[in-house]
Design a protein that fits this description.
Number of strands of chain A: 13
Radius of gyration of chain A: 23 Å
Largest interface: A-B, 40 and 27 residues
Helix content of chain A: 25-40%
Strand order of the largest sheet of chain A: 9-8-10-1-11-12-2-13
Largest sheet of chain A: 8 strands, mixed
Oligomer: homodimer
Chain lengths: 383, 383
């Protein structure tokens, strides 16, 4: 499964071509002729997915049933290996005045260096029978993870989202979350003392408390021994969540990712390979950059096809049209190759070709069952 | 949202063109090239919708979840402003013999004039703590509306659907409907006395008791301040039901409807404009008439596009092929225009073009979410 993040696009002007249609992709086009094409809807008609729901959907999990909360996404994003006992939140360093009223929710966007030093200080806080992880991200942002038995994540934010009032204590929104509320409030009280002389970063705000959802793994759901190749923590985290082994990539280039695929080819029977650049250029509004990223993937495709996969899925987790500079609701091009698909017979991989493809416009969650069928791995239903 | 009632059609003979494909519609064709096309399924595969379900679906409400009963449709059809305390039914004047046995369920299809006079008489009947409305329709038909607290609509019909037996008393089909049953039977007893010397219309039959369903409004569901432009009561009624402001149209022509749109353009952020003629000609089996009605709409389209809507939906509530002289189950052509759709690039609006369109063949309820997404009015789902 080759996922180009944010693959789907839009033309720069009406009647023009999308990023994918503009790209010179002879390898993908040739593959398309032998494949079935379609468009995938990650969540629902008109709904723009975040990266979490987009990935869960293409992995075959209903993103309306399984939710990855904001705190958990933040922790996954920095490659923190969250476990089932972990409660995560987004953290901000903030500024408070002598009465404890918030004067700046972002502490003047302190340098990441200062963040790292303060995070080290906060990591020294001890609470009985818990582990606490404070992982600096950038400027004023950090990930907060509390590890203990019996934590639940239905908790209110401490961040009131405005200034002139104090940070709010965490409240349990359900009785089962009382324990977590007590522990988090205990941590916040200690943090306040540790930071008291560290103006502008003399207090913290926490929001988006979340544990990881519990999902059936790829082994349980599909009988697959699956591995993930991704350069960014968030995608590695979501892959880990569904039970994929996250492989070590030596290097940061697309080529390094494909070399990793070759290296481990005989050790797993499913690979998820994630390409981030397509989305990054889309978010930047860089149409040409996204076109070039797609062309770079096309250039590396022969490394993959040379391995002769039984089934090959090429698609995306959502659309990120450069003209919108953001994720969007548009269905996402997909192709499925195997010796057993009904091939389109026409060498073109693009939004229009896919909208006329024989897979139709379908929920993204349908892709894995179709791929498994093409691997002749799904038994007949009924006698 | 421009709705041509019964838009979908069929060719007169196999291999020919449908009404929409036959029509000379340069404006709609040009719009199609810049739009995404598809086909909508109002209720479910193979199901022919009535006007109520067809409209609820294109408005975004699952017509299997929300039902508008026959009595309520009858009341809406004559532009009666039904409220939440109103219980409506279809009424017939009928003939009974000296033993009270029905001899003619339609009272010989009395003149509408006589209907109006008798309806006035029935309107004089008083029942404590209720209001009664008897609204003449045509020949022997009238709408019956009872307004009181605590009414429920699970009631049996009084019309036995055959002659030689007496009208049946209304029975409560659930205990909660007892009050309504008592009041309706009280009214029928009074009506019998009032009409005793009015042969052939010397009795009444009531059927299809219904209150309005309670739906989230367009404001609640979509955050839209919506207005409706329609010449016929039923469509005005369904629009009112979903919280649209029903605008006054001065005149009875399509042009009058488009003038109303222009007049109120700056006062609302969503407009539903309903065209009845397409369906009327379809029901009459008048293929050419339906073609001309579609061409008339095409001629007026520039009045609409000149207003520069952010998003434009052109579609129908169901199909009404002239060859069938009735509503049908066929999916309905639709186009969505906005600067953010993936344009088809080909100037053709018709059933075949739509069946190959990039929206696919989708539930009609998906149209509003996609339209709202194109208006950039839906927030991202998940992180």
């Amino acid at each position: 499964m080759l996922i180009m993040d944010g693959l789907g696009g839009l033309p720069r002007k009406s009647g023009g071509k999308t990023e994918l249609e503009t790209a010179h992709i002879p390898n993908l086009d040739a593959l398309a002729a032998m494949s079935s094409l379609g468009l995938t809807i990650p969540v629902a008609a008109g709904i723009t997915p975040g990266s979490g729901p987009g990935h869960l959907a293409i992995f075959g999990y209903d993103p309306l049933q399984y939710e990855i909360g904001r705190g958990a996404m933040e922790a996954l994003g920095i490659d923190f290996e969250m476990g089932p006992d972990d409660l995560a939140a987004r953290g901000n360093f903030c500024s408070v005045d002598s009465n404890g009223m918030i004067t700046d929710r972002r502490a003047g966007r302190i340098d990441t260096n200062i963040n790292q030093e303060l995070a080290r200080l906060l990591s020294t806080i001890k609470i009985d029978d818990t582990e606490i992880f404070i992982k600096p991200i950038k400027e004023h942002r950090f990930a907060f993870i509390l590890r203990a038995d019996g934590l639940h994540d239905t908790l209110s934010d401490t961040d009131p989202q405005k200034i002139g009032i104090p940070p709010q204590p965490v409240r349990a929104l359900e009785p089962k979350s009382e324990k977590a509320a007590v522990l988090v409030n205990q941590f916040i009280n200690s943090a306040q003392k540790v930071l008291i002389n560290k103006h502008p970063a003399n207090m913290i705000l926490l929001r988006g408390f979340a544990k990881l959802p519990v999902l059936p793994t790829y082994q349980e759901k599909y009988g697959l021994n699956a591995a993930a190749i991704a350069l960014n923590g968030m995608y590695r985290g979501v892959a880990r969540l569904v039970g994929m082994k996250v492989l070590v990539v030596n290097g940061q280039t697309l080529n390094d990712e494909f070399i990793t695929l070759e290296k481990y080819w005989n050790e797993y029977d499913f690979f998820y390979l994630h390409i981030k650049k397509t989305d990054t250029f889309g978010e930047l509004g860089d149409f040409e950059g996204k076109v070039k990223a797609i062309e770079e993937v096309d250039g590396l495709l022969p490394c993959l096809t040379a391995l002769k996969p039984d089934v090959l899925i090429v698609g995306g987790d959502h659309s990120t049209p450069a003209v919108l500079k953001s994720h969007s609701w548009h269905p996402v091009p997909v192709l499925i190759y195997s010796p057993f698909v009904r091939p389109e017979g026409f060498p073109e991989f693009g939004e229009h070709a896919c909208s006329r493809g024989s897979l139709g416009t379908i929920p993204a969650t349908h892709i894995m069952p179709i791929a498994l069928a093409n691997a002749l791995r799904i038994a007949k239903y009924g006698a």
